[in-house]
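To: structure desk
From: M.T.
Subject: fold request, one chain
Message: Could you run this one when you get a chance? Sequence is below, nothing fancy, just the single chain.
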Amino acid sequence: MSSGNMASLSVISVLAIILLTSPVFIVGDTCIGASTDHKVYTTTDGASSTETVFLIEFTLVCKNNAKQNLFLNAEVVGKQLPVSRFGDNQYQVSWTEDHKNAPPGNYDVRFYDEEGFSALRKAMRAGDDSAKVKPAFTINVAHKGVSHGPVVGTEVIASGLALLLWYSAYQAKSRIQV
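Reply: Done. Structure tokens follow.
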């Protein structure tokens, strides 16, 4: 065998090895058997804000010991949201809605790893039902709605009581002076 054939054979061998092993390096980890410890916050006071805020903080543990600090995305009510990391396996996602667009109820927030989010985007582009794409895990947010406060503000009640007290004192003073 000539050295030229030997060199091309070794180049082909190297390329074959690279092609066979590249999926291992390109594909992100998949979280199997995800469990979370989470805290949920939603706005309850509508009088002091114009939008309802939804906030989820969670710690993620995968049964298959997938690498820590996965890249995650979330989907809720047709919105795709980035998920932020703020520590080892600690994540946070938040979004806002106008009060009228955030009625009381349960909101299922579906979380996807890189592979799942890619499948979700592909299904949405193709016009397929995105509910068929299985999320890595789901967190339910129970939103109780927002309160716009009492019909009469406390400052009006306090002012009325102050006027009533002043009037009573004025009447008492007028009876004493007569």
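Reply (cont.): Strands lie at 35-42, 51-61, 73-76, 79-82, 84-87, 90-98, 105-112, 137-143. Let me know if you need anything else for the meeting.
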